[in-house]
Amino acid sequence: MLCNVHLLTALASLAPMVLAYDHSKNNNVVVYWGQNSYGAKHEGDPAHWQQQLSAYCADDTIDVIPIAFVTAYSSKGGLPELNLANICSAASGVFPGTNLANCQFMESQISACQAKGKLILISLGGATGNAVFTSNSQAETFATTMWDLFLGGSSKTRPFGKVVLDGVDLDIEGGSSVGYAAFARKYRSITNGKNKRYYLTAAPQCAFPDVYVGEAISSVAFDSIYIQFYNNACGNHVYGNKNAWNFGTWDNWAKRTSPNKDVKIYVGAPASDTAASYGYVNASTLSRIATETKSKYSSFGGVMFWDASQAFANGRIDRTVKSAMGGSIGNTGSTTAGPPTPTGGNCGGAPPWDKDTVYVGGQQCSYNGHLWSAGWWSQNDTPGQLNKNGDGAYVWKDQGACSGIVDAAALVHTDSYHIIDKADETDPVILAGTLTGPVIPPTEAPSPL
What we know:
Layout: H1 2-14, E1 28-31, H2 37-41, E2 64-72, E3 81-82, H3 107-115, E4 119-126, H4 136-150, E5 167-172, H5 180-191, E6 199-202, H6 214-219, E7 224-228, H7 247-256, E8 264-270, H8 283-296, E9 300-306, H9 308-313, H10 317-324, E10 364-367, E11 370-374, E12 396-401
Parallel strand pairs: 1-9, 2-4, 4-5, 5-6, 6-7, 7-8, 8-9
Antiparallel strand pairs: 2-3, 10-11, 11-12
């Protein structure tokens, strides 16, 4: 018995330690996921496009992942719209009578990320400015809707199934400020006192005060503020100019104005030089900004990156900065989240098509002796046949006979019309719901928390 106890102790010591999110720390890293920013700028490099959410939870580097974005608040059937670019959108499949994307295949991925101690938030808005409230009462009703669809409430149309997200983020970059303070107050009234902590965050521009969420963050207790120090004259590219780079102004706001005197303020940064119009600084410069700001301002919470695809394609800038701040990065893993290099086989390394497998844009399969590449999210759409959407489109592109293909990865095809790139408002935008996908039945909702 004593020997068995020692054995169990030894085995326990070999198990990976899960680092739970600690809000009090000042070296946390927040990385937005959902919009495939790298893919929008580099259509010819699909290996570095946005991958499934689980790919970004493999090590300890990222602490918080806001899923972006809920792009409309009241659409068909009175429900919102959700667009996750090449992973899931209305074109992938919707709930009956709505334009709300059914992304319930992500349920297990979100649960796995949370099990690794990461906060998973749902982010509202984005750069398009099409998500707006017309009144405070509409905003208050929508707070209840978000509770039922994404948090601890109950609904038959939950986009991520039974999994309960950790909070809501406001990334409002256009439209109007109407309703956001009312939304935040109602959100707090719903979530306060529950047996799970629900976070409320925002991502204002660095220019102070913020046009869209300034009233909300100054009248309701927010947990974290992810300030966008890019695409503005006060961005990280002017760090050192006391008359321009204004983290001190936000620190003063945190201590004197914010209803939550323990609110955490983050330095937001583009994760590469193509992630924003301007304001990018390299990993060493951002590490210096982060460490100096950390030592000077007590409100500093860490660094926020836009976005995951850009960070992983840029040599894991997130990991470099996290390490500089003294945070754990755990298992270093790969420097990219791209697909593995094919190792051969009868179709350049591509696996056979499977009707039960969920495919996303850029993934490949072999079928009837040919190589096929998915243009967007697909499940049970047979290669060579019109998709079940009924819009006359083909999910799969025929890339030729397997007998003539050595490396399938060199022939990746995808469809990029789902992408919304918040970093560059001049990019063409296709909003969720303009191409409506197949109706997918929901799963059961969780019990209220």
